[in-house]
Design goal:
With about 250 residues, the chain is α+β, with helices and mostly antiparallel strands. The protein has five helices and 17 strands. The chain has helices spanning about 145-155, 165-170, 180-195, 200-215, 225-235, and strands at about 5-10, 20-25, 30-35, 40, 55-60, 60-65, 70-75, 75-80, 85, 90-95, 95-100, 125-130, 135, 140, 235, 240-245, 250-254. The strands form four sheets. A six-stranded antiparallel sheet has the order 2-1-11-10-7-8, with no helix packed on it. Strands 4-3-5-6-9 form a five-stranded mixed sheet, with no helix packed on it. Helix 2 packs across helix 3 (about 180-195). The longest helix is centred in the last third of the chain and has 19 residues, at about 180-195. The model is unreliable at about 105-120 and about 215-220 (pLDDT under 50).
Length: about 250
């Protein structure tokens, strides 16, 4: 039986996905690729959906199938249905570019989803959507369902910019949402973060997180200003979207 492997060749910066990571594809393999931490191939890129595509190996051939109407490119051409891949073909999901190669990799067992992601920092933001809770630096953010979903959408993008449309889709997955209403929900999230920033010790932790994940910024600019800290921590940029100043390893969304 022929064996293959997929290699991550390029990612859109900044990204926690490791260039050079390989995913073995043995006969009978069936792997879901996506931003969901429970996906077989975990790709925490803001432009990748939670369940973006499925790879399968059948009768010595590798197939890729877009899931839930998502866009997958094969050799720069968008596909809409299950498609067979040939060795040396390129595939793109969001900002992740990978290539199919013949032959097995050194690791023949199934690659754990998290093995292609570097996570070194401690988790500081935990979001449990089932329980409707978010905890930042040990303090609960008291949020209603819509602001909680807005925060989850931005958190899933980690340190990448997440568009207002993507946040809208997260809050209202089955119907068109109001982008202007997204800004209102982000405002509620910031107010909750401000309350945490105003508590003893938390302001310094927020400032440290921003410094770890921002290109340029000094805590002296916002010293003692809880609202300014909240705005910098959850950054907004017109026509671009929202960005949370945390690394992927500091976020846990369930």
């Amino acid at each position: 039986m022929a064996e293959f492997h997929l290699r991550i060749e390029k990612v859109r910066a900044p990204s926690p996905v490791a260039v050079g990571a390989t995913i073995p594809l043995a006969a009978g393999a069936e792997l879901v690729m996506g931003r969901d931490p429970d996906a077989d191939v975990f790709l925490p890129d803001s432009a990748v959906s939670r369940r973006h595509a499925r790879l399968s190996v059948e009768e010595s051939r590798v197939w890729i199938e877009p899931l839930d109407g998502r866009t997958v490119f094969v050799n720069k051409v968008a596909i809409e249905a299950r498609t067979v891949l040939e060795p040396e073909d390129w595939i793109q999901l969001g900002g992740v570019l990978a290539r199919l190669y013949p032959g097995a990799t050194e690791t023949r067992s199934a690659v754990p989803a998290m093995s292609i992601v570097t996570k070194t920092a401690a988790v500081v933001l935990r979001i449990d959507l089932e329980q409707g809770r978010a905890v930042l630096f040990g303090s609960e953010l008291k949020l209603r369902p819509a602001p909680l979903l807005a925060l989850a959408a931005v958190a899933e993008g980690a340190s990448s910019w997440v568009s207002a449309e993507r946040v809208c889709e997260r809050i209202w997955p089955d119907e068109p949402g109001n982008v202007a209403y997204v800004n209102k929900n982000i405002s509620y999230v910031r107010q909750a973060i401000r309350r945490v920033a105003a508590s003893p010790g938390a302001g310094g932790e927020l400032a440290a997180a921003i410094q770890r994940n921002a290109d340029s910024w000094t805590t002296a600019e916002l010293d003692g200003d809880a609202m300014a800290l909240a705005r910098e921590f959850l950054k907004a940029r017109k026509k671009v979207g929202f960005r949370l100043h945390l690394s992927p390893g500091e976020v846990d969304v369930r």
